[in-house]
Design brief:
The chain has 69 residues and is mainly alpha-helical. The chain contains four helices and no strands.
């Protein structure tokens, strides 16, 4: 059930954040390659990844506390 909730929240992320976290944390692609692929600066990549992680970690915390997505 957590995976379904995670997938749902990943789908709701803005596209840049979704791409940054998916390519980095799920696919394991290097930050330099992601920046080249998305045509963004390393700073912008770090911001997108940070924002995505904050949202996803918040969802996981809520799920752990309440058991609801």
């Amino acid at each position: 059930v957590l995976k379904e909730c995670l997938d749902r929240h990943l789908d709701k992320l803005p596209s840049g954040q979704r791409m940054a976290i998916t390519l980095n944390d799920i696919e394991g692609i290097s930050p330099a390659e992601i920046c080249n692929t998305l045509s963004i600066s390393p700073t912008n990549f770090r911001v997108l990844l940070h924002r995505a992680r904050i949202r996803i970690f918040g969802m996981v915390s809520q799920y752990e506390e309440t058991g609801e997505c």
